[in-house]
Amino acid sequence: MVRYLRNEDVAKLITMPEVIEALRNLYVEIGQGISVGTPRTDVHHPLSSRPSDLEESESFIGRAHYLKTMVGGFVGGGLVAIRLSSDLVRFSIQEGYLRREKEPQAPGKWFGMVALFSLENGELKGIVQDGAIQRMRVGATSALGDDYLARQDSTKVGILGSGGQARAHLIALSHLRTLERARVWSPNKEHRETFANEMEQEIGVRVSAAASPDEAASDCDILMTATNSRQPFVNPEWLLPGMHVSTLHRDEVPDEGYDRIDRLILHTNFKEITVSSSSLPTFEGTVLQDHPVHSSLDWSKYPTLADLSVKRATGRENPEELTGFINNLGQGSQFAAVGSTILRKAEELDLGFKIDSELLWQNMHS
């Protein structure tokens, strides 16, 4: 039987500490060369549908369809995963910066799934909607990087961004550091105030809405970015000795900012394989693929989270270091690791829909 699990099921089956622990084990295996995966593959096409009334505003730049896949295994959990997402994306200018946002395919509906295959016999064991697992694995990954690099006495957090990823990042970090306060800023005043109120209740820490990004970034031990920006917006002058900077996208900080960082760690040295239609919309002469802004940094030279996990690289060495972690690219192995815990508990509790495996077998090989 193949078990089909919705986001609601995932929320019942796994906690953030369990996600952190599953990923902690995974990065040891990746560092040892036991568990492997491929770079993410992005295929970008223009949308053939006509623009809506909203897209006639001056801020609108263009739309596209992204089909993304990532593949990887977790030997410790006995699974290999493929994550597949089909996204409609919109580019616009907000607060003077290029932003990329995902549109629903139907009101309140998006498509993303993870297929989990057994490393014992190759059988498809589960299909999981990817919304909940995606947010939790990204937040937990950043928190692991932060755990190696942020000062142990870090208590004050600045957050730039107030969406689902920002929430997951703050929740994950709260399990690894004893926080005293957090300040959040995002362009939408209502969103950041709602975030502050809800997260204060969620993590039991004082969370306030900042009136500006400068205010959010000031007097903090950890500066977190979790935005839809596809242009650098972090002022390098915000990055001070002793601080730790945690970014969701490599686009959020300019090269001059990264150059200030004494110890910079990447999630992975992989770079996505991008295949983009020449008919995609453009912005200032650049095709609007997922990461349109060029960086001059050599990403291959930096150590990774897996290197830290097996001690090929070292974390923070003194309180005055300015450290940084870039959660630059997802890996399919993350879904295999987190999926192994989810699937095991789903089988124990008999949760989810069951699909007869016979419907999926074929009587010839490709």
Short description:
With 366 residues, the protein is an alpha/beta fold.
How many extended strands?
A: 18
Write out the CATH superfamily name of the largest domain.
NAD(P)-binding Rossmann-like Domain
Q: What is the CA-based Rg, rounded?
A: 20 Å
Helical residues, percent = 25-40%
How far is the first residue's CA from the last residue's CA? Answer: 22 Å
Average pLDDT reading: 94
Helix segment count? 9
Order of helices and strands: EHHEEEEEEHEHEHEHEEHEEEEHEHE
* Basic shape: globular
Integer count of domains? 2
What would your notes on this structure say?
This protein is of the alpha/beta class and about 375 residues long. It folds into two domains: about 1-135 and about 330-360, ornithine cyclodeaminase, domain 1 (2-Layer Sandwich); about 135-270 and about 290-325, Rossmann fold (3-Layer(aba) Sandwich), CATH 3.40.50.720. About 30% of the residues lie in helices and about 30% in strands. The protein is built from nine helices and 18 strands. The strands form three sheets. Strands 1, 2, 3, 4, 5, 6, 7, 14 and 18 form a nine-stranded mixed sheet that branches. The longest helix is centred in the middle third of the chain and has 19 residues, at about 130-150. It is globular and about 65 Å long. The protein starts with a strand and ends in an 11-residue tail after the last strand. The mean pLDDT is about 95.
Which helices and strands occur, and which strands form pairs?
Blueprint: E1 2-5, H1 7-13, H2 16-31, E2 41-46, E3 60-74, E4 79-94, E5 97-103, E6 111-118, E7 124-129, H3 131-149, E8 156-160, H4 164-174, E9 181-185, H5 189-203, E10 206-209, H6 213-217, E11 222-225, E12 244-247, H7 255-260, E13 263-266, E14 273-276, E15 282-283, E16 286-287, H8 305-309, E17 323-326, H9 332-349, E18 353-355
Parallel strand pairs: 1-7, 2-14, 8-9, 8-11, 9-10, 11-12, 12-17, 13-17
Antiparallel strand pairs: 1-18, 2-3, 3-4, 4-5, 4-6, 6-7, 15-16
